[in-house]
Automatic annotation (TrEMBL):
Designated name of the protein: Peptide ABC transporter substrate-binding protein
Sequence ranges assigned to domain ABC transporter in this UniProt record: 5-256
Membrane topology: Peripheral membrane protein
Classification of source organism: Bacteria, Pseudomonadati, Pseudomonadota, Alphaproteobacteria, Acetobacterales
Keyword set, alphabetical order: ATP-binding, Nucleotide-binding, Transport
Length: 336
């Protein structure tokens, strides 16, 4: 069976212009720069990386909230970038988003019931009575009592608002839910509750998640597979177990080694990465990670490493993925 979502060579480049009357293009921001991955039915693929690495732009491209500069996005084998009109409306219904900020993503003037029902209205699903019944069912599904439908967003906590955001996304019965840092604005004590709810809903409804995060503790709990992004490209992608047990890309290793382990004897001895992430207007040639990679060699500055399968289910964009020294670290950083 083909994957639910298949993204190939996806890119988003923005021209940078200067001048008031006569505008001249002075550069290009390569926000997303040739990204490929797939999401199978019923699974969670996490996109991780530091802020500015292109995760959110990738999410917006997948949902076609913005148009790609290059590449294809296939949903059930159909190229989403070529779909228009009514067919696109149908596709939109099947892909929904849960936003990072549960405070900003709900209209303060709509009751919670109206906010949850809104996507059903937009997609012409049901009548008032059936939508009302569905809202009550959705509220129960996310662990809130149906009477909350008459209240307003400001009457709820952050965690409750994110439950409402999830109910809203589920109101049109999507197959894929793109989650853009859905718990990073919440208190740590609340994060686990929302993550557990999302996992429970996935199992019950057979949902697929494209789960965007920078917190590896959350990702370890949530993901089936993980794609590590750096400066607009995927550096490593693989099953969660393999990636945590045996990360192959130097950048993945650095990210994982940065998680503090509660036992000092097992803490990473990998030196933290030097330097800053280069600007997406000046992506280094060859391996885009070479300016910060402790293993960089002459070849790395010229030749772009392709994302190659190193072991079944694990692909790595590094010329030397097979021969890099194994630092023998416990990369789990105490994450359970
Ligand atoms: Fe480092 Fe070279 Fe591998 Fe890039 S290709 S990650 S610079 S060793
Ligand atoms: Mg973001």
């Amino acid at each position: 069976m083909s994957p639910l979502l298949e993204v190939s060579g996806l890119a988003k480049h923005y021209p940078v212009k200067k001048g008031v009357i006569v505008q001249k293009q002075v550069g290009t921001v390569r926000a997303v720069d040739g990204v490929s991955f797939h999401v199978n039915r019923g699974e969670t693929l996490a996109l991780v990386g530091e802020s500015g690495c292109g995760k959110s732009t990738t999410a917006r491209l997948v949902l076609r909230l913005i148009e790609p500069s290059a590449g294809t996005i296939r949903f059930e084998g159909k190229d989403v970038t070529k779909v228009e009109g009514g067919a696109m409306r149908l596709l939109r219904r099947r892909m929904q988003i849960v936003f990072q900020d549960p405070y900003a993503s709900l209209n303060p003037r709509l009751t919670v019931g109206d906010a949850i029902a809104e996507p059903m209205v937009v997609h012409n699903i049901g009548d008032n009575a059936s939508r009302r019944a569905k809202v009550h069912e959705l509220l129960r599904l996310v662990g809130l009592a149906p009477f909350h439908a008459e209240r307003y967003p400001h009457e709820f906590s952050g965690g409750q608002r994110q439950r409402i955001g999830i109910a809203r996304a589920l109101s049109v019965e999507p197959d894929l839910v793109v989650c853009d840092e859905p718990v990073s604005a919440l208190d740590v004590s609340i994060q686990a509750q929302v993550v557990n709810l999302m996992k429970d809903l996935q199992a019950r409804l057979g949902l697929s998640y494209l789960f965007i995060a920078h917190d590896l503790a959350v990702v370890k709990h949530m993901a089936d597979r993980i794609a590590v992004m750096y400066l607009g490209a995927v550096m490593e992608i693989g099953d969660k177990g393999a990636l945590f047990a045996n990360p192959r890309h130097p950048y993945t290793r650095a990210l994982l080694a940065a998680i503090p382990h509660p036992d000092p004897a097992r803490r990473g001895r990998v030196t933290p990465l030097g330097g800053d992430v280069p600007s997406p207007m000046a992506v280094p040639p060859g391996c885009r990670f070479h300016t910060r990679c402790p293993f960089a060699q002459a070849r790395c500055k010229q030749e772009v490493p392709e994302l190659r399968e190193i072991t079944p289910g694990q692909r790595v964009a590094c010329h030397f993925a097979e021969t890099l020294p194994d630092p023998g670290l416990d990369y789990t950083g105490g994450l359970t």
